[in-house]
Amino acid sequence: MTNFNTTAKIYRLNYLKKNKLLTFSSVADRILPADENSPGGGSLETAAVVDWYMKKVPEDIRKKILLFLDVIQFTGIFFGGKKFSNNSIQDQEKQLKWMENNKIRLFRMGFFGIKTFVEMGYYTREEIWSAICYDGPVLPDRAYSDNTIRELCRNQLKISE
What we know:
Number of strands: 3
Structural class: mainly alpha
Strand order of the largest sheet: 1-2-3
Strand content: under 5%
């Protein structure tokens, strides 16, 4: 089954749906908060790039990343009394900082895995490039391996769950 409908130009999310999308967006907004020059990382566009990439990574890594999103969501109860996405920004930041600096390796690795995916999904989007004063790829005419990712990065597709 394909996740790209060429007639309607829609990218359908496969992995980051419903609660996973909510958690991902909340985490991404804490990792890359919005400022006066750029939107936060928690956009549907960033999620779509990450979702596209998830089909490229080995299944065991994909499962771990998706499981860690659930871990983040539910451990939020210990930091603000609610699930991560419902906690205050301060409680979310406290929780992610705890995970980033945790003595338990799995928390640290999970945090840095999610952070890597968020940053990759955010900074590959062409509309973000001007906010960071990046003129574009060194090889602008180089073909993408998959036209879907080119269209996602250029914000040329509608995104749907």
